[in-house]
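Transposase: structure tokens wanted.
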Amino acid sequence: MKPSATPAKIIESIQEFYNGKEPEIIYAELDINKECFDTWIRDFGIIANELMELRDENEKLRLMFTNLSLVNQSLRSSLDSLTRSDSKLIDLLIEKRKTGNLRYP
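Answer:
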């Protein structure tokens, strides 16, 4: 490992390789040879792959959270816009549900 190649830089270069960057370009940028890079892939490849998977999962979770937040905001807005008579109807339905007598008249 070159002194200037930090573990973060090594993992980044492996991820670039996994994403399709030509290995010769990586070798030139880092001033290393093929054997050095092959050693890095053997030693750090699993970590780089897991990191990429975690980033993908994190992006999916962020999107899911954003969507759920929008739904929550929409539902709160709908509840806030209910009139008092609508609230009374909901209270009546809740009471009927508690008694188990929630049938259509």
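The CA atoms of residues 26 and 78 lie 54 Å apart. The helical segments are 7-18, 23-30, 34-80, 84-99.

Cheers.
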